[in-house]
Amino acid sequence: MKGRFISLEGGEGSGKSTCLAYIQSWLENKSIPYLTTREPGGTSLAEDIRQLVLNDREESVHDLTELLLVFASRAQHINEKIKPALDSGLCVVSDRFIDSSFVYQGVARGGDMDKIQTLSDWVVKECLPDRTILLDVPVEIGLQRVQSRQQSDRLDKESVEFHEKVRQGFLERAYKDKGRFSIVDASQSIKAVLKDIDIALNAAFHLDKY
Ligand code: TMP
User: Fold this and answer.
1) Is 70's C-beta closer than 6 angstroms to any atom of ligand 1?
2) CA 114, CA 93: separation in Å to the nearest integer?
3) Which residue segment(s) compose the domain that 99 sits in?
């Protein structure tokens, strides 16, 4: 039987790492075999592409280059890691996936949504997440959390307007596809956030029905 595919999405400083650690312990407690991964990245080559996307550089990065790089990384990630893992029955949990491209390269950068959809149809095909957990946090709070980190990447440093577009972009996608998305208010206390993650995971594994 194919494993379940879960993605975790959210703006900068939404607390994905804490939630990912919780999801891992949840899966271990339920004895569900799993693999965690991230985008851009997830394989050696895809991680090299991640550096190309996120590192600061003198030369400006054209929006189309950025878009094609994240999809190149995803092609490698899906075919070399995600699909084989799902086919072998592992649950795959990815820190970011296709929704980030629609939101960052599409909504926030103003990229052509039809072209992104075409790339998605070509690269991702049916390898879509069964459940996507969106950690929603007001931009101010998210950016404060990121500023307290030692390192920030090229995208962290985008304008507040850019990050507002990211937040709205994710929320719109989530409202349009409520069957797949669970929206979690990530500005709550950690305890409350993890409780909501628990509910989302139970829904992902249909454990809420029993
Ligand atoms: P993060 O995983 O630490 O949040 O950093 C990944 C960054 O890459 C984040 O700013 C979002 C960005 N990104 C895109 O712009 N497009 C994509 O398709 C993906 C997966 C990530």
Assistant:
1) yes
2) 27
3) 5-209
